[in-house]
From TrEMBL:
Ranges of Polar residues composition bias in the record: 41-53
Positions of region (Disordered): 41-60
Official protein name in the record: Uncharacterized protein
UniProt source species: Arthrobacter burdickii
Highest rank taxon of the organism: Bacteria
Record InterPro entries: Quinoprotein_ADH-like_sf
Amino acid sequence: MDLDSWVACADTGRGRQRAAALAVGAVMTFLLGACTYETSPVEQPTPTSSSEPGFSASKPEAWGPGSPYYTNNGIPYVGESTWPSPVRVASFTEAKTGVVYVDADSSKIVWESWEHDTKEIGRQPWRNAGATPVGRMWGEFRDIVGNPESDVVSWVETTDGQRGDIVVVQPSTGRVLARTPIEASPEQPVVFASVDDHAVHYATGTDPGGSGANENIWVWQWASGEDPHLGRRGVAVLDVSGDTWAVAGGSRISFERTDGSVLSSVDASYGDRTYFGGGLSPGGRFWFAPAYGLVVETSTGKEVRLEHGFDGRYGWTGPEELTMIGPGLSVCSAITGNCDDPIDAPYTYSAFGLPLN
């Protein structure tokens, strides 16, 4: 069923899902930073250097797909310029049709198109009271997730101050395409790995600062009307995107299909400095090994070294693009390893955010 057909189906009332199960496990690693939900600056932004030589591409700064988006102390930027909209952003993600952000002041979830049309599509995503900045990778909660190749986003609703359903929303229309309740206890955080036109992958757990590997990953095939179910049982999962699973086992990380067939594998150290939901590119074609500055093509194991490393943070900002922070901000191609000329970007260690893709 394609997305348009599903929208028609959802409008008739058949888009509601129900789940009954409990997942446990920890979903984060390498404790760093505070969260992007901070409402006041912790320190003054300090521009990073852009003097490193050897970068080849031009720097895209126009509002639109493929430009480098980020926030610092709640102020949203595209390239070296602030967004046209005068908002403070708590967290944000990128969809095929535009940017979706949580307004830090109003708690509204807003879609802004590439033509600057705006639409309120929801309210503040739920996060449990125990979800403190400590134990969050890069200061990001991963409580809302999008996909640069799809017109869908997903989050957990907040209902009367309590955790509500997981929803899949088409941001360009604001339509709720599907929803499902969560049977796990309310104190357990829900951390998203990925969303696309067919499925949502997420984990629940009680220790947000724990290991990045999780043995209880939920698969919700929302477009086909299925209930969420536990995926690969008995394996430690680092990330899921598309039909690619990154699985930790012994001294290796394997890139596998849902049925367990192995595509390729790399040394376990290729998972150092990664975090749940941040290793695989949207769609699962690539894996980033931060400790080595390498991108791995998951289907073949082919490695590509990036021109630009990072001192601060990194994040997948497209199916083939990585944004690297420090020194400067640079967007790198996972296919060629080439990186844009770094730009001067205001960077506050404890209050910086990249899109949650």
